[in-house]
Write a structure and sequence with these properties.
Number of strands: 0
Oligomer: single chain
Strand content: under 5%
Largest sheet: none
Number of domains: 1
Shape: elongated
Distance between the termini: 37 Å
Order of helices and strands: HHH
Radius of gyration: 16 Å
Helix content: 55-70%
Length: 59
């Protein structure tokens, strides 16, 4: 897995020249959330679909 810095640089370099700071920040935000999600899965921090449905019902 590439470093966070390298992943961010690659993502930014693939963006169009017209990308503004909001576009860049959003792309970095998505990269962060995906990485954190993958880490959670690797650590077993997941719930089943049924558990999620029950959690949503309790809102």
């Amino acid at each position: 897995m590439e470093s966070l810095k390298q992943e961010a640089m690659n993502a930014i370099s693939k963006m169009p020249e017209t990308a503004d700071i909001d576009d860049i920040m959003y792309r970095l935000y998505v990269i962060d959330k995906v990485r954190k999600g993958r880490e959670a899965v690797q650590q077993g921090k997941v719930i089943s679909v049924d558990e999620l449905r029950e959690e949503i019902k309790s809102w």
